[in-house]
Each structure stands twice: as structure tokens, then as C-alpha cells.
Amino acid sequence: MLSAVGSISLPLCHSRPHRLQVEMQDSVDYDYVIVGAGPAGLQMAYFLQQAGQRYIVYESEDKAAKFFQQHPRCGRLISLNKKNNFFEEEEFNMRHDWNSLLSEDKEMKFTKYSDDLYPQAIHLHQYLNDYANRFHLNVKYNTKVEKISKANSTFTVCTEDREGRTTSCTSTCVLMATGAVTENIPVEQIPGLELADTYSKHDMNKDLYKNKRILIIGGGNSAFETADYFSGSAGIVHVVFNKRIQFAWDTHYVGDLRAINNNIIDMYHLKSLHSTIGSQVVKIVKNEAGKLVVTFRDLNTHWDVPGWLYFDMEYDHVISCMGWNYVNTQVFDESIKVELVKGGRYPKLSNCWETDTENLFYIGSAMAAIDRQSASGFVHGFRYNIRTLFHILEHRLFKKPLPHLTLPRKDLTAISTKIIERSTISDSLYQMNGFLCDVMIFDDRNATKYYTDLPIKHVMERPEFKSAPHAFIIYLSYGFDKFGQTNKPVDNVHAPDFSSNRCASFLHPYIEYYSQGVYVDQTELQESLIVRYDDWSNAKFPQWTSSTNHNYIKHYVNDKLKWSSEVFNLVPLPEEVAKQIFIPLNKEEMTRLPILWENSECKPSQELLPKNPELVRERKLRPTATEIIDSTEPQLERLKLVSQSPINHNLILEEEPGLVTTRQ
């Protein structure tokens, strides 16, 4: 259950005093100042320009999105450019176009710039500059923001151009769209890290690394992208990380390790010299031969005596690929407060992306500070966040209503039709699953007000929703958590249980009900193979019928509102249909069902055991903690004998309180 209720320490997004537009125009140069002309800055500039607002974008480089001229270093994006999606709805197809910015111009799509599924970054750079020019966005290039300050409710932004000329302007709102500011290089944590190359600056000439030993520090996409790039030329490539790798196919978070970058893992498990090492880098030193000697600290809980193993390895090159920092606090003076989170790499943001300083927001990749579930850190996610923030700001500063439509009064069919339509076609709910939602509330005449694309956790911070006697929140999300910890998402390759609406694993609609701001309960629709719930999909794919989806929505809403006495048919699979398409397992097949070792709300899908399984050899289980303690002394004696042998095992055991060990 994703509850939108909870206490937060940041100021609420709705609680700002509104000021009339004429007052703002008299007191400031701009309503909005945007810092940075990357994809986030351009996207916000587009919405402001369409609304006729006074804004300016400051960009320190001579072109927009200069970052993509150099990054990713291998030149290939990991954002999908899927041009052919069978269906014709433009909004639906944006689900699979991860690079285009939003606009009303159908010709201004990135899909016209490349046919590659994973396109080259240089094409994105060209597209973004064409986007800025096409809409005549007010970008001032070669202008660096040097300092931002605030007095009362007005920001002052000081800038300097390439010729050293300085100027300043005032603004009501500042939007930081600076993207990845600096590389994360924690030299204070790893002595000698300054000896390593970095992701942004390492030499890309493969001949320099031919038959060399390379260590790459990091466990994300930049690290594995670099490892993959050199895997054909280097003699040995090691990738080291001190925490478990998060695979995107497991987490469904696009920022985790993607399959397109994990060739090194494939080569490691097929024993092709390249390897991954799950250890911590302790220090780096250069020896007399000019090689880099790296000391590792390895946690070994699987040993007879659990402990820490220290060992050294020698490399020709070490490359640090530990991600990015998304905040430069040096640009703010003491009047502005921006607290850092996530190891100092991200700004602390409210549920509508505002810092502790009123009307100072971060947009773009930094929006991932409050979202590690969907796509806030990527273009295909933050383009929707920015559109939502634009509407929130227009409501706050200019009293413009949030986008919504009004459905006929007491019309359950209109409600179910709208929810089915949004679940079938919406690109924003799809890309920002579990983060953005639609909201339904009702006026005094029982007419339905249907709001779109609001942050789930922000909804009940707004008085109009928190005070509503009846409010429904609609969003798409995954359901893998209901299948237990031992179930792997990649094993979900079979049809879901159509007899229930609770056990859907992949992306599917959720509907939550609130009364006076308090969460009451929720319901779900069953999943669809292509995340569509229209009549065409019902007829072509194994999923619930359209009438079943409509009936579940009508029943759930009517149960709360008491609009109708109609009884809705909630049988998802009619008996006559079930007999045609479903055959239960026979007795022999039932005996071959594997034993489920974990109790979970939903049963994971399993394959049947072989008809004649071979006998499984009895295995000795791992000793208990008591057995380990009882065996500590003889084990330590054995380790002492090993450490005293003339062979250099390159082994160091860390001392623990109460234990005496030998270091070597």
C-alpha cells in the first residue's frame, strides 16, 4: 500500500501565500530564473514560454545540453528509442520514447533523429539544441551563475559572461536545472584515490590499455559501461563495489544496472578472466615500478570463522566511476538554505521538489532525491515531474487551477471509463509508476473532479484533497513484494491468477480511497501483458475482460459513495470461459509441485519437478552461531599455523575484541 499520508519536516507545497501577478511584475525582473539549459531547463522553459511568463535560462556553455557531447563516455545512451510500438496513440507511444521532451509539436520528437534502440548521445545533444531553437526559448548562453541570494521573498541572481562582464537580476522563483554537477570522488574516504583516473577524464584510447590490468571502482552503469568498453583490449578488468549490485530487472528502477551494460558479469561467470569483486577499497599506493597497489577489505560471513579479509592487488590503471553529485552549494550565499542528503550528493527536497528555501526548486536528475522507484532521474521521467511542478507553481503564484476535468454527476460508467483510458494510454502514470497519480474528488452536486499527474505523497498535503469526504487516488505500480523475498521478478513469466485481483506482479492499476485525508483501503486491477485495458487488448491477450475491469472499478467506487443499488458482476473468469481455456493439474502433476519454503500473500509461479528426479545428496547445513563460537579456538589455532608458514598467502585478518589474530 502506497500511503500518501505522513509527517514531513519540509514546508508543505501548498502553504505559500499567493501574490497577484501585477504585484510580481512591479517588483522583480523575472517570475522565474532557470539555471542550466539541459533537458530539464529546456522542458520547464517550454511550459513557461507557452504560458507567456517572464523567465530566463542561464547556461554557462555556448550550447544547450553540452553534457551529452561527452557523456556517456562510450557515446551510447541507455534510454530507449523504441519507434515502432504497433499502436498509434501518440501518448501511448511516449511510454517507449525515453528521450523526447514534451511539446504540442508532433514533429519535435527524438525518434526522428535516430533509428537505434539505444541511440548515440550526440544525437540527443543535437535534438535538444534544435528543441531550444524551434520554440525560441529564452536561453542566455555563455553566462555562468556566480551567486544566488535572497532577501524577503525576492531572489537576486548574479552572473558573469565569457568576457568577464557581471550583471544581476531579480526573480520570484529559482529553478536549479544544473544536472550532474561534479563526479563523486570521495578522496577523504579512500587514501590515494587521487592517483586514479575518473570516469569523465580517463583516456578512451583502447591501445593504451592493451593487455593491461584495470580496476574500475563503482557498481553502477558508468562503472560497467567503462568495463565493457575496455573488455576487448585489456588483459584483466576488475570491477569492485562494496554493496550488492542492484539489477534493473530486479528493482524495475532504470537507474540500477541495466542489461546492456552487464557483459562483464556474463564474462565473469563464464570465467573469461574479467571479474567482479564485492569488496571495499581501503587505499591506493603507487609502487616503485609505477604500478598502483590497491588494498581491499572483504567481508566474509560464509567462513567457518566470519571476519574481514584484507588483500592487495596490483593494477596498471585504476578508474573511479562512483556516480555524480547533483548540488553545488557554493553558488548560494548564507541567506539560502539547501540541506544535502544521500551522502551529500542530492538536495533535500519536499514532495513537490522544493528546498528548505521557499520558491527554490531542483528539477531534472536531482528530482531522484525523492524517487528511487520510477524514472525521476531520467528525461522520460522528469519531463512529467517538470510539467506537474509548472502547474503547481502557476497555481501558487498566479492562482491558476490545477489541470482537471469534470465528469457527469453520479456517473459510475464515466468514472470507470476515464480510469481505464488513463491506465491504457497515459504515458506519465506509466513512466512515473508509483510516484505520480490521478485524483478524484466530488463537489456538492456529486460531480466528479478528475485531477491528473500529481505526486502521490503530495496529494494529501493539499487542503482541497485532504478535506474531501471522499477522495480516490489512481496510479500504476508493481506487485512483486506480495510474492515473497525468495521470488525473483525475472521468474514471473507465466499468466497471473485471473481468479484474483490481488496477485498481479507487473505494472497494473491501483486505486486507493481516502476520507478526510485518512487512508481507508485500496483495490487493484489484474495486470495486462502490454499494460493496456481497452477492448482490443482484452480480445488479443490473456487478461481480464473489459467488462470485468469496469465492474471492479464501479463496485469499489460505489461501495464508498453509495450512488447505486446495482449489483456488479465480479466474476473475473466465467465458468463457461474457464472450461474452454483452463485445465487443472492432474494428480500426478500435483505431486511434482515444488515445496514453497516461504509464506507470502501470493504464490510465485514454479516449474514442475522432473518425473524421475535424481536423488539429492544429503548436504551438511551451515553450523549454527553456537557451533561457530564453540569451534573458534581450534579454528584460530589452525589459522595461526597457516600464517606462520613460509608461503605468502597475502592474508590479513582484522582483529576483533576478545580475539587474537595474526596479521601478515
UniProtKB/TrEMBL annotation:
The keyword GTP-binding does not apply. Pfam families: Pyr_redox_3 (PF13738). GO terms for biological process: ERAD pathway. GO terms for molecular function: flavin adenine dinucleotide binding; monooxygenase activity. Keywords: Oxidoreductase. It comes from the Eukaryota. One of its GO terms (cellular component) is endoplasmic reticulum lumen. PANTHER family: FAD-DEPENDENT OXIDOREDUCTASE DOMAIN-CONTAINING PROTEIN 2, FLAVIN-BINDING MONOOXYGENASE-LIKE PROTEIN (AFU_ORTHOLOGUE AFUA_4G09220). This is Uncharacterized protein. It comes from Bugula neritina (Brown bryozoan).
